[in-house]
Amino acid sequence: MQINTNYTIASIFSFLIHASLILFLVGYFYSEKKARPVLNNPIDVSLIFEQDAKISPMKKTIEKPIPQESFNEIKIVSSKIPTPKTNQFKEFEPAINVIPELSKLISEEKNFLNNEKINDADKFSLMIIDTIESAWLKPKNIQDGLVCDLRIQINKNGRIINVSLFRSSGNIRFDNSAIKAVKRVETFNFFSKMDAKMYQSNFKNIMLTFNPS
Amino acid sequence: MKKILYLFFVFLNLNAELVLEITESSDNPYRIAIHDFDGQALISNEISSIIKADLQRTGEFSVLSSDELLAEETYQEELNYKNYRLLGVDYILKGIIDSKDEMNITVSYDIYDSVKEKKIRSSKIYGIPNKTRQLAHYVSDGIYEEITGLKGVSSTKMLYVSEGLAGSAKVYKLMLADADGMNEQTLLKSNSAIISPSWSPDSKDIAYVSFETGLAKVFIQNIATGSREVAVKNKYQISSPAFSPDGKFLSLTLYQDGNAEIYILNLENKNLTRLTNHYSIDTESSWSPDGKKILFTSGRSGSPQLYEIDLLKFNTKPKRLTFDGNYNAKASYLPSNEGIVFVQRNEGEFKIALKYFNENFSRPLTESRLDESPSISPNGNVIVYAIKEDKVGLLAGVTLSGAKFRLPSSSGEVREPSWSGYLR
After folding, report:
1. Is the model's pTM score more than 0.90?
2. Which of A131, B1, B216, B218 is most buried by its number of CB atoms within 10 A?
3. Phi and psi for B234 in degrees, rounded to 5?
């Protein structure tokens, strides 16, 4: 009996050890450490050389506020419309046709005004991309398909105060060339034209992706 | 406190035969301002000039000396980073050499980052007076590593074969020198040919092929003691030795089956294991950095091409790696295991080429016409190779970033360079 209990204890332990080993091998304990440091609304600025591709990352930020604004606008307009009675429906038909058009015009105008603000952010992002692009020399004899991410901190005068490698490409020479480019830029001289709010929300911390493909 | 141990080699012959010559620089170097070191003028001049040459030879630095800097900068205690940035300087080096004590020489240096506007490294190195070259190499490796993140190779060594005439007889010498070509030392002198020198992974032993017995035989020689032995004692021709990364095996080419095949020699029990079996020539083996694969040149497709064999898989067919050009040979792996470097014949010209495993084309690295026997530095950034100029063999180097240099010799021909591993 004594032996039996020993055997059961031993087999339980053996089972536990083997089970944990199998779980380990299967990848059960593997959790991706997504310890992304908290950023103050980072903007992904992609360094891509094609003209249309350059603008694409910014579209996200532009598109979001527009439907919101236009939606609000429609709401306000529709609240002004007196609720039509069912028998009066025909009389009101042309009016309904006019009102959406009007609301559309108003919303377009508002969008235009908002766009100017957003375009500012867009413009500054493009300027940052251009500045870094012109400072960047891709090293010779490196593989194709390398991508690395840098985090940069900029003070309100436009001076880069910190550059750090966020995601390495795996090739140290490629990473170095990206860091070198950012460091050589040193100061973005157009930051003086930027208002404090935009700087705080968009340009204090920037994530730069170097993707020369 | 870092004490450097220069116990690896004993140098008796200090007269330098090789002179460094930088022929082309990288297109995007770091600009570093090196101020003259404070201290006894003779020693500090020597040390700072070696450091400058070392950094320039890496191809990744463009050095500004004190005389190129603004005069007031040189003597200021506080660095005015803005002025340096105006000169395009990325890093600033300042150092002091203390050689008051006859037995010791101390180099302290600081590296400043002109953009971060702060000191990024501060080091103190101790050495002995008649080893100033090594001391300077050690300093430049520290600077290189701090800035590029890669280990420096200035304090590594190189093996090569020199061929000259003594009277009417040909003399072959197996030579050892610093990576900059200085501190030459003869390891072996012979009237018969010496070929294929290579290093053990700990850089304490070397293997080479000597024809002194009439047959090609592989010898293993200890550098410190000079004692040597024949690797395989039999009646067949043996060539192209290469140590495995763990130092326990030696891959060889044996001609005992009528044609060249690759074998692996266990250095402990001297057992030979055959790796390839094909009626065409298989030779010039080299090991992958993890020791799991062997790369070799084979004529099995009709022309010399590179093949890779996986040592962990039993009985696998060698995988062909090169498909462009009708001649690809003498290959070795990059230390990062990202690709291979080899000799490629293209339109009748022999060039050193690089091929990454994830790319289906090769990248030529050199432009001369008869380049051969490439050997890669331990940090994978520099490739030294043999060239022919006016029918005389010379050594040249190219960095991946595009800088080129030559190590011309004043006496005889030099060829078959082989770069050591890290020595510290």
Report:
1. no
2. B218
3. -150, -175
Question: How far is CA A46 from each of CA A125, A133, A150, A163, B352, rounded to the nearest angstrom?
Answer: 10, 10, 11, 16, 35
CB contact under 8 A, A183 and B150: no
Lowest-confidence pick of A112-121, B220-229, B366-375: A112-121
Give the position of tokens 């190129």: B68
Cβ-based contacts of A143 with chain B (< 8 Å): 338-339, 356, 358-359
Q: Are residues B109 and B173 in the same domain?
A: no
Q: Tokens for B169?
A: 């007889």
Closest CA in chain B for residue A164? B116
In tens, the pLDDT along B155-172 reads: 999 999 998 888 888 899
Q: Would you call B311 helix, strand, or coil by DSSP?
A: coil
In a domain, B239, yes or no: yes
Tokens of B226: 């000079």
- DSSP state string for A92-111: HHHHHHHHHHHHHHHHHHHH
Cβ atoms within 10 A of the Cβ of B195, count? 17
* B171 in the same domain as B121: no
Helix (H) or strand (E) holding B166: strand B157-166
The predicted pLDDT at position A1 comes to 58
pLDDT of B104 over the 80 cut = yes
Q: Which residues pair with B274 in a beta bridge?
A: B263
Q: Give me the residue from A139, A140, A186 closest to B115, CB to CB.
A: A186
CA distance A171 to A177: 10
Residue B399 Cα, gap to closest chain A Cα (Å): 9
> A177 to chain B: which residues are within 8 Å by CB?
28
Residues sharing a CB contact under 8 Å with residue A139, sequence separation 6 or more, in sequence order: A173, A174, A176, A177, B28, B400, B401
Separation CA B55–CA B141 (nearest Å): 8
Give the pLDDT score at B240: 93
Rounded to whole angstroms, the Cα distance separating B187 from B177 reads 10
A136 within some domain: yes
When mean pLDDT is compared across A106-115, A137-146, B85-94, B303-312, the lowest value belongs to A106-115
Look up residue B407 and give its amino acid: L
Closest C-alpha to B66, from B92, B36, B37: B36
Q: Which range, A111-125, B168-182, B196-210, has the best average confidence (pLDDT)? A: B196-210
Least confident of B24-38, B63-77, B207-221, B360-374: B63-77
B118 and B230 share a domain? no
CATH number of the domain at A45, please. Answer: 3.30.1150.10
Q: How many residues does chain A have?
A: 213
Does one domain contain both B281 and B336? yes
Dist CA A50 CA B141 (whole Å): 40
Residues with Cβ < 8 Å from A104, sequence gap 6 or more? none
Computed over every residue of chain B, the mean pLDDT equals 85
Dist. CA A205–CA B198, nearest whole Å:
50
Does residue B349 have a pLDDT over 80? Answer: yes
Residues from chain B that touch A137, judged by Cβ atoms under 8 A, are: 27-28
Domain count, chain B: 2
Name the residue range of residue B177's domain.
157-419
Mutate to test the interface with B, among A168, A180, A213 (most CBs of B within 10 A): A180
